[in-house]
Design a protein that fits this description.
By secondary structure, the protein is mainly alpha-helical. The protein contains five helices and three strands, in the order βαβαβααα. A three-stranded parallel beta sheet has the order 1-2-3, with helices on both faces.
Amino acid sequence: MLQLSRVHLYLTYPFVLSWSLLEAMSAGCAIVASDTAPLREAIRHDETGVLVDFFDPAALAEATCQLLDDPARRARLGAAARVFARENYDLKQVCLPRQMAWVEALAARPAGEAPATAPGWTPPPPPPAQTTAPAPRPAVAPAFKRY
């Protein structure tokens, strides 16, 4: 079903990053998601998806309509989302090896020693720091169409 989707809307409360978003990304879906800290770990605005204010339904509708009207942008965002998900969250190549290394490191530590992060594990890189304030999003009433 996800592979047939033109745009995947990911709005979450409480604000968490879940496997369902990563599954949509790995299927190559173009994502419109809540602009919240946990989602910024995986969604880079206009690189791996589009971030919108969770509490702004007009911006959500506008961002979705813009993606529906722009197949090239949808394809670019979906392809980048798939690459990001595979490079950072692939179960067999990334997640399980890191988890096993962490468990092995825990088992090997002396009793009473504080647990450490998994050897070789590094989180995905943070988004680039903004040197200027983001451009304000236009307050445009979305033009609804049938797709």
